[in-house]
Amino acid sequence: MTLDIVIATGDGLEDWRAIHNEIIPTHPLSGADVAERAGRNRLTLGFLGDELVGNATVRPPLPDSSVATVIVRILPEYRRRGLGAAYLSAELTHARELGARRIETVVLASNEDGLAFASVHGFAEHDRYVLPGESIAFIDLHLPAEKS
Questions:
Q1: HEC string of the chain?
Q2: Within 10 Å of residue 45's Cβ, how many Cβ atoms?
Q3: Which segments in the chain show pLDDT lower than 50?
């Protein structure tokens, strides 16, 4: 079975939010937060048949930039099956079609699986920060130029 990727709209935005909030419990998003993000980013859902396995965000390059952010989240019970790699590949292709020449991602520091996934796929850390009122850092990573 192959991974099917669909744009999150309507009720799919609530599915997208549920996955985000499960994987990033320290920074839960409201429905309004997700609706705002959907207006400026590509929010997608990944399905294996009828099973929802993950979500992704592509933040497109700004008009004066060639940097896109690609974030793929796979639910724990579906990891280590190649789904994340397939999802990442598809979303990287989309980001490049939007003109991205540099690809970044962001992972919650406590998400060991996410950090390992990013490392295996060639991402290198370039920044860490803690959002106001929170205690766990987010880690910004990027693909080296030859992998972007």
A1: CCEEEEECCCHHHHHHHHHHHHHCCCCCCCHHHHHHHHHHCEEEEEEECCEEEEEEEEECCCCCCCEEEEEEEECHHHCCCCHHHHHHHHHHHHHHHCCCCEEEEEEECCCHHHHHHHHHCCCEEEEEECCCCCCCCEEEEECCCCCC
A2: 20
A3: none
In the prediction, which pLDDT does 147 show?
Answer: 56
What confidence score (pLDDT) does residue 134 get?
A: 87
| Amino acid 45: pLDDT | 98
* pLDDT computed for residue 148 by the predictor: 52
Domain ranges of the chain: 3-142
CA distance 51 to 101: 33
Alpha carbon 63 to its chain centroid, in Å, reads: 21
pTM: 0.93
- Two tokens at 26? 């320290």
Q: Residue 88 — left, alpha, or beta (φ > 0 → left; ψ -120 to 50 → alpha)?
A: alpha
CATH classification code of 3-142: 3.40.630.30
Rounded to the nearest integer, the mean pLDDT of the chain is 94
